[in-house]
Design goal:
Elements lengths: L1 H25 L5 H26 L3 H21 L1
Length: about 80
């Protein structure tokens, strides 16, 4: 019975990969500038989430202030990209 479940899971994975590949080819290619904007936006979102986590664990008020300033700068950069 385990083999049946395993083969179905593999089949589903293959179908999902085929779907993802066809969706990727259906989308129009992004310009290099658009790709760079997209990468920059994702990097800023990751940085923002790291800073938010650091704020949650900050014990010093001075450190928390610095992190809040960093968060504001990241938010400003994100809004400038949009």
């Amino acid at each position: 019975m385990a083999r049946g479940w395993e083969s179905k899971a593999v089949e589903e994975q293959m179908e999902e990969a085929a779907r993802a590949q066809s969706e990727a080819t259906d989308r129009p290619a992004l310009t290099p500038a658009a790709l760079e904007r997209q990468r920059r936006r994702e990097a800023l979102r990751l940085a923002r989430s790291r800073v938010v986590e650091q704020i949650k664990g900050a014990r010093s008020e001075a450190h928390r202030r610095l992190l809040n300033q960093s968060l504001a700068a990241i938010d400003e950069q994100l809004s400038a990209l949009d």
